[in-house]
Amino acid sequence: MAKNNIPAANAVLTEKDIFEKAQQLSTRFGVKVHPFLLKNGDDQVIGYVKEPSRLSKYRYLDKAMTGAMSAALELLEVCLIKEESDPRITSEAPENDIYNIGAATFCASLLNIATDSLKKN
After folding, report:
1. Considering only CA atoms, which of 4, 46, 53, 58 is closest in space to residue 30?
2. Phi/psi of residue 89, nearest 5 degrees
3. What is the pLDDT, as a whole number, of residue 120?
4. Using CA atoms in the order 48, 54, 59, 65, what is the torsion angle rounded to 10 degrees?
5. Mean pLDDT in order along the chain per 10 residues (121 residues)
6. Please, what is the Cα angle at 19 between 92 and 113, to 5 degrees?
7. Which single residue of 22, 106, 112, 115 could bond 35 by disulfide (Cβ 3.0 to 4.6 Å)?
């Protein structure tokens, strides 16, 4: 492992390793932690996000009505565990935009909404 528990550039973590770390982080933070794995060629970019609070979910849904991706980015900024995630996710370098956008999209996908299934008369 390299600095800040981030794998060295040549280290490849298995899905089992990634999920085990997410479980450890869930215990540490007292909230469900969701891992994600972004790939681009041989690059493996791993991130960990805390389950968004109810208020964060409502804010995301409100903002998504006018700008889905900017709302997803705000959700990422609130939920990403930066010290445990690959720094390329938050890097300002243009070549890392694919990871930032992928991570934001993942955060937006965490919101599940139950819908009414009763037939209306």
Report:
1. 53
2. -65, -40
3. 76
4. 90
5. 50 90 97 95 94 91 90 94 97 96 93 78 69
6. 80
7. 22
